[in-house]
Amino acid sequence: MARHISFGTPVNDAERWAFSLLSDELPEDYLLLTNVEIPTHTGQAMEVDALVVGEFGVYVVDVKGYIGRLNAGLHAWSLDGRHVDNSLSKANYVARVLAGKLKNKIPVGVYAPWCQGMVFVTGRKGEEILVEKDTGKLSIYTPAKIIEALTKEWGLTAPHIHPVTETQKEMVLDTIGQVALVEQRNNKIQDFIKLKCLFLQQGLEVWQSEYNPGGWTAPWLLKILVTSQFEHSIDATNHEQKLRDEFKRIQSLSGCSCVPFCAPLIQDGEQVVLPIRMPRGVPLNIFEVDKQTTYQLLEILRRSVTGLQQIHRRGYTIGGWADNCIFISEDADVEFIDIKDSLNTSEDIKAYAQAFLSLAEKTLQPRIYQWYRAAANGSTIDLDVIRCDLSALIDLGVCDTLPQKVEIEKGAVIDHHYRLDHFISATSRSQLWRALHIQGNYPCCVSVYQDVDNQWHTLSNMYRSLAKIYHPHVERVLAFGQLPQSDDLFIARDWVQGVGLDEVQTIEVGQPRLWFVQLLTALQYLHSLDIHHGAICPKNIICRDEKATLVNFGIGSDIAATHYAAQYADPTLWSVEGDAEKDLYGLVASFIDAMAPESIKQGSSADAMLRALEQHDKQWLGEAFYDACYKILKFEMRIVPNVSYAKQLGLDEQELENSGL
What we know:
Elements: E1 3-6, H1 13-25, E2 31-39, E3 45-53, E4 58-64, E5 68-72, E6 77-79, E7 82-84, H2 87-105, E8 115-121, E9 129-133, E10 140-141, H3 146-151, H4 166-176, H5 179-186, E11 188-189, E12 192-201, E13 204-211, E14 218-226, H6 233-252, E15 266-267, E16 271-277, E17 282-283, H7 294-313, E18 326-328, E19 334-336, H8 345-361, H9 366-376, H10 383-396, E20 413-414, E21 418-426, E22 430-437, E23 442-449, H11 452-467, E24 477-482, E25 489-494, E26 499-500, H12 511-528, E27 541-544, E28 547-550, H13 557-563, H14 571-576, H15 579-595, H16 598-601, H17 606-614, H18 618-621, H19 623-633, H20 645-648, H21 653-658
Parallel strand pairs: 1-2, 4-8, 5-9, 8-10
Antiparallel strand pairs: 2-3, 3-4, 5-6, 6-7, 11-12, 12-13, 13-14, 14-16, 15-16, 17-18, 18-19, 20-21, 21-22, 22-23, 23-25, 24-25, 26-27, 27-28
Helix pairs in contact: 7-8, 7-10, 8-9, 12-15, 17-19
């Protein structure tokens, strides 16, 4: 694209189309001056359609919009048999005048650049024109040859060919006069000064500019619509309406996060200009994600999703999700510069997730990137969930992930906080460790799970649920995340003081019943929130003095199937029962298994649990409580909605109230 300086307005469509072609097709080191006047020695000025300062010479180009058959001779021309002016003669005369002016200005020892006339016959925008020349040497060209004639050596009529130097180019500009002022005038729209063209396509331009009212400057983008450059007026009208609609959208979204500020539309008769403040930062496609900390990435995501929500709540969607239309700054500012309102809300969220998925995965936070994966597939549109998760991770504090893989062994540090001190148990897909919170110097436990993708939904739901509730007889979840350079997940939990129900050495009268009622109330609360333990057994019931606590939620179906609750029940019945019924079964069976001697049980099967229960005194346990436990062990009890478990198991209100003391 040549450097184009317009000294005046094109007088017809032929000139306008010709200047556009020359500007687009000529090399960038060429200079194109249009509708320029060349001064003569008498003080008069001769207007030139186009003056091209090229690699080998200076060309005075006369533009003609002839349509038909042009016969061009050395002296006379005819168009479809009618006499027309010899435009080449005029162009050559102006070229000789210009050459004379240059020779008068040239210093001693410096050659003047070669100047020659040339005629550009456009036809009807490059068509419906046939040129016949009496001699091939005449510099008369159609659109098919004009660019080559101006850029190749064969297009010159000079006896000797010499490249035009920078000094000679400056001489030409100096001879014309006030070129710099004219260029500055052309590059200025009110107080906006055009600096660099970022996009150019038939009538549409995007310029990097600065706002310079005097005393200070600010960077802006200018979206310019030149209506005269469209082939059809209806296209110009449609594009102008789109530009006006964009202005209305940005104005309507004023005050929303991630929406750039825009100034009022500028219209001067030839062009419509939409000034948009230059977004801070760089486009997403060149943003250096690898250099950002986890906190910065999370903040970028939080601001982007907050802005998206605000835009949707005002009834608009973005639609323009190209990487170069999303800007991100070092301060985690996010701006969307192409708000089209062309999608529905669901499609917009899906496109947003696809645009930011790679950035989300760099956080190595499963709570975050799993949502973006799901949204990118169209399986979720809940922006509130991801915004809350992002805020929670930022506010609670998330350390940047270590670059190297962590080996799960004694002494290993998980997430900068948790040091593994003592191995407790493991299966093929999970491990359980006692750990120490390094900064807080208090004990906790850490569960590690392999195969994050397969276990994500179960673990994620459990973590989200437990992290948001508190119950004195339910363990507290401290942290949840993914191990670096690995597909393994970890969950850090509070370490509950005490021993497993099956390891209690001394039992006082009334203690087991108190523990049972406490855990029953905990299950009632959890089940009302749709949270299920899934693996209740003596080892997951920690007892100390007057308190029992449920631990190891979601430890994994593999553990439950080996030596936890499932071992008590009939496998067929266990597989078809509901989650709440399984938890109640595990609670009852765990207490019977832990409290009854082996001589009575003779194993841990469902029949063994029933035999052990039958050895208890009905009156001592309470007939209603005894019957309820018996039905639970036989999977014959149906839970009644909106009725407390204690009442359904025959426990009195006084006993229930005392369990919390």
